[in-house]
């Protein structure tokens, strides 16, 4: 490849990357701009800079959406879901990776089917069952629903990590006197920890942003999640879009900060999950 071709390739690469960065950052920048505007200016021209900075949009959004309570509810629910999914999925994925299962095609079809099946199919039976058991407004019960919904994806991803680990490591640990549980806990989990972190980030994002299940099973005011309280800010006839944009920024900010801090681990985890065994 000549120098001219190399420069052309490099230029095209930077142009494409610049376009992708613009597409990625534009919604966030637009959200920040409109969060600082009066509601009238948001409606008139959402792309313009604010004529005056309205910091009170954030304070009103925090108070009206009761974010002090609802953000904590979302954090607790997300943490419970992450723990349950990572625990059950890692154990299941380890067994599926190490044991020869004759009906593996059936298991694969089941996992893929449950991954793609819409939750609406199960919403009404679940609701009536939860109502009979008195589990409405119970965050732990909702965390178990999230676990059932997100576990198939997590199992499929983590299985690829366990397949990439040489069996000789397990055999050496067993020869040294370790039990199967010790092999899993002390040998396998540290090796596949990037995959578990990747699963935790993805499941955390899903749980934090989930709306349908949360609004169905968590109905009392003291159990609402941040996303549901954000939805309730919008009125039937009029909405304060400056306040709504400020509320959206408050909800998005923790996820953005967490992803920025852990992006290298996340990318490494996704790359490692692409290894086929």
Task: Report a brief summary of the structure.
The chain is mainly α. It has helices at residues 3-35, 39-44, 56-64, 67-98, 104-116, 120-133, 139-164, 167-175, 180-191, 193-209, 212-217, 226-231, 241-273.
Overview of the molecule:
There is one protein chain. This protein has helices spanning 3-35, 39-44, 56-64, 67-98, 104-116, 120-133, 139-164, 167-175, 180-191, 193-209, 212-217, 226-231, 241-273. It is mostly helical.
Write the layout of secondary structure elements.
Blueprint: H1 3-35, H2 39-44, H3 56-64, H4 67-98, H5 104-116, H6 120-133, H7 139-164, H8 167-175, H9 180-191, H10 193-209, H11 212-217, H12 226-231, H13 241-273
General form: globular
Classification by helices and strands: mainly alpha
Give the C-level CATH assignment of the domain at 68-232: Mainly Alpha
Can you name the CATH architecture of the domain at 68-232?
A: Orthogonal Bundle
Nearest-integer average pLDDT: 86
- Total of helices: 13
Main attributes?
single chain, MetI-like fold, transmembrane, cell membrane, transmembrane helix, 277 residues, mainly alpha
